[in-house]
Design goal:
Layout: E1 30-37, E2 43-50, E3 62-63, E4 72-73, E5 87-94, E6 99-102, E7 126-128, E8 132-133, E9 140-146, E10 151-157, E11 164-171, E12 194-195, E13 201-206, E14 213-218, E15 226-228, E16 236-241, E17 247-252, E18 261-266, E19 273-274, E20 281-286, E21 292-299, E22 302-310, E23 318-319, H1 326-330, E24 337-342, E25 348-354, E26 369-373, H2 390-401, E27 405-409, H3 419-422, H4 432-448, E28 455-460, H5 462-473, E29 480-484, H6 495-502, H7 509-515, E30 527-533, H8 541-553, E31 559-564, H9 574-592
Parallel strand pairs: 26-27, 26-28, 28-29, 29-30, 30-31
Antiparallel strand pairs: 1-2, 2-5, 3-4, 5-6, 7-9, 8-9, 9-10, 10-11, 12-13, 13-14, 14-15, 16-17, 17-18, 18-19, 20-21, 21-22, 22-23, 24-25, 25-27
Amino acid sequence: MGGRGGRGGRGGASGPPQAPIARFALAVRQSVSSLLLSADERYVWIEISEQPEVAARPQETPAYVTESSYPEMLPGARSNVGDEQSVRKLAILDVQENTSVWADAAPFAGNEWSAVPGAVTGPRIVNWGSPNMSGDGAYAVISVRALDNKDRWFVTVNPATGAARVIDNQRDDAWIREQGVGGGGGFGGGAGIAWLPDNQHFLFLSEKSGYLHLHSVDMSAPQPMATPLTQGAWEVTNAALSEDGSLVFLTTNEVHPGERHFYTMPSSGGAMTKVTSLTGSNAATVSPDERSIALIYSYSTKPPELYMMPLAPGAEAAQVTTTPSEEWRNFKWIEPKIVTYKARDGQDVYARLYTPEMIGAKRDKKKPAVVFVHGAGYLQNAHKYWSSYYREYMFHNLLASKGYVVLDPDYRASSGYGRDWRTGIYRFMGGKDLEDVVDGAKFLVATEKVDAKRIGVYGGSYGGFITLMALFTTPDVFVAGAALRPVTDWAHYNHGYTSNILNTPQTDPEAYRKSSPIFHADGLKNRLLILHGMVDTNVFFQDSVRLAQRLIELRKENWELMGFPVESHGFTEETSWADEYKRILKLFEQELRDVR
């Protein structure tokens, strides 16, 4: 055989047999979203996305102005609310034994929501997140959410059996606020938590108290429970741990709902130390050595700029950048007044107020006014810093210069005011939110002495929707309205946003009928202008087309529809913006000031 056999040649032994490679078989319609190896390298956590058995038909958006000269469908089509959704599952693969188990959803399977209007009956369906490990690997906390978003659980799972143990549960009969929405920045990771250096405590943000606040959980306790570290009728809008984990860096609106300031606080709890002092918004990034902070600072009349300052309470912030032109900076832009007024249910509504006197003009003798309705998602606009609606801000300066009074309210469901305000539109969009807008118009009549018969309303997206609901359901309040890219039928909007607020069309049809303008169009009395991008991939142009057909069928004549052929939800062409706002101005000039 020669010497080669002794060296492990073809006929010799090649050492001990290799262990089989551990495998996990995916089923049809399943795909892997993420993989995580346990600290002892025995288990692999596998987050799996499972698509529905019958895929929803995606909504497609045709583009008409194309290089080919033919209409073309745009990519990125989406489904509608109520369509079957994918589900996230969690499996655990034992690498050593080559076995696998599924994380057990038994603790969440009960149907506790059968008595809630619009709730889904039958077993609860949940979405699993990926594990967030403590630094020593001793604990893995997973966030689990009900598909209807009315429950969020923090759990631990036994990797050998898949058995889940609930650590914390947050429940809301409307919907749970998601981390990172509306300035509610979480800590990152699959569960949105941050582990402290002791590897026993983790921090997270939650609306348990009715406002978004910082909480701590001690995993070494016999029965871990969430303990609030901040509290009050204000919100933590962002949180991060220092490098050594001894401090938490916080941004809050404690000073005023319309201000954002940066604080430090011991990560174990205790007093907060306010660092920033500039009135407005202070979005801070801490330097790697944690001795300085970079601020993106803005004020209501000053766009965001970069500032630098020591990480010390009350330290002076030095401006680094100057972005606008000298001509723009030298213009006397209005500093809107932040006011509050009482809604009909006694709640305080915050709003921006613009008057002609603020820009050195006189009020028009006809005493006209306009109420602007900002968009939604989860957004705030009655604040003391630079608005994301900067074009509208400049438009309001123009209106004030022509003698108008302008009100910009943070109606029900705007961000920054806590859970009850956020969920005030549950099962009825166009209910309390519209009441807040109407009560704002009445506030202008009472305090600014505007003519009640010369008030207009306008807004885009959700603001366009409210404009339609205002003209259709409160036709004697506003003499004219401009609805930009409006939702006209919520059953045609996306699932993630709409199902939280209105449930689904299949389970809660009454909520959709009450909330969709197309069912109230017969109430139109005064003049309506609809403006919509024809390649809008968010609120489809179809919404305005369907409403136009309904208005034709109702024989309404005091409306018009302007389509913008190359624009999506947010316009990009300067000429489109100019055209849109010239039309809105013309509408108000004709209907509120009789300028023809």
